[in-house]
Amino acid sequence: MPSFGSYNIQADVVNISRDVPQNGDIFFVDTNIWYWLTYKPSAAPSPNYANYFSNALVNEAMLCYSEILLPELAHIIEKNECNIFNRRNGKDFLVKDFRRNHPRERIPIASIVKLAWDQVKRDAQPLELKLYESPISDRAINRFATQMVGGYDLFILEIMEIEGITKIITDDSDYVTVPNIQVFTANKKVLKEARLQGKLLTR
Length: 203
Fold this sequence. Notes:
Helix content: 40-55%
Radius of gyration: 18 Å
Largest sheet: 6 strands, parallel
Structural class: alpha/beta
Order of helices and strands: EEHHEHHHEHHEEH
Number of helices: 8
């Protein structure tokens, strides 16, 4: 019986501290990794993500992103900047209140988001976004019933499947519930449970 919450690990899990990215690897890079690489490296739970990313670039592995990551990345950056503002000024604004009450503070945040997104575009290859095609939405809804992933992740998985990408670099434990993909991670809880469930892959 799986002990990782209620997760039955379906993906193959790769420990990035023991793996070397290879020429020919094609990775989708999740939002949490971009957040730490482009905006807040000191918040990363493991320095292995930055090292693995750098090695992937050096070894000419292909790193990919989708434009669907931008709203999520912008949101978590803005939320963190709001928290910084609250701590500095003794406030307790929610993000929406922060926007309305301090629009001037948001101007430099927009610049921060742009710099982060420019780095994403510089370091990775874009995947075509076709959310207007209804079959993608239908498949995402079907996936929602069987795989324990959130809304953005549903579309990321559909885009990966369309493009034939099976490898994702992420710290998000939800992806391990998805069959037929490889999750490259430094998440200690995920790695421990993958080992217990026989889903830890060594390449």
